Amino acid sequence: MSGEMQAQTPPQQQRQQRQQRPQQPQQPQQRSRSGRKLLQPVTVDDIAAEDVVTVERDTPVPTAVASMAENDVGSVVVVEGDEPIGMLTDRKVALALEDTPEVAQRTVGDLVSEELVTADSSTTVFDVVRMMGENGIRRIPVVDEENTLQGIVTLDDVIVLLGTELGNVAETIQAQIDRL
Q1: Is residue 172 in a domain?
Q2: pLDDT for residue 152
Q3: Domain residue limits at 133
Q4: Residue 30 belongs to some domain of the structure
Q5: What is the pLDDT of residues 75-134, one digit of tens each?
Q6: How many domains are contained in the chain?
């Protein structure tokens, strides 16, 4: 391989930045009755991407699709001001094209349902996965107390977290095996 750096897309840069974040001070480890350490819950704040691709409700569908392609993402959050009101996914556009070939003449607001599932930064990853499963979705915008968009968490983010955690478990097990 050459020494050249590959251009990174915003989501790749965000993942790399999250991995390079300085570790926050650890809270005291909770213990079970047996004295064993308990796993600490991971929150959305730990894994959510902060740079979210957004569009307004009156954005033409082709413009939103171009924004998804340009930013290498599969969705855009539809906003009014800083408040998320919907989500447009590449899948929703593809299905709309099948049903309505003139979708290119429509706006994002024509394709977005008003029901948007959101989470706040303190929501646990476990709860986010449950919300995704219950609602048949893969992406959840993160909002603050005023419903202002703060980020987005995706199923891919959860999978990366689980892969990292399983890697840590494997290292711990291997260290124990090596001690035998």
Answers
A1: yes
A2: 96
A3: 40-179
A4: no
A5: 999 999 999 999 999 999 999 988 887 888 999 999 997 789 999 999 999 999 999 999
A6: 1
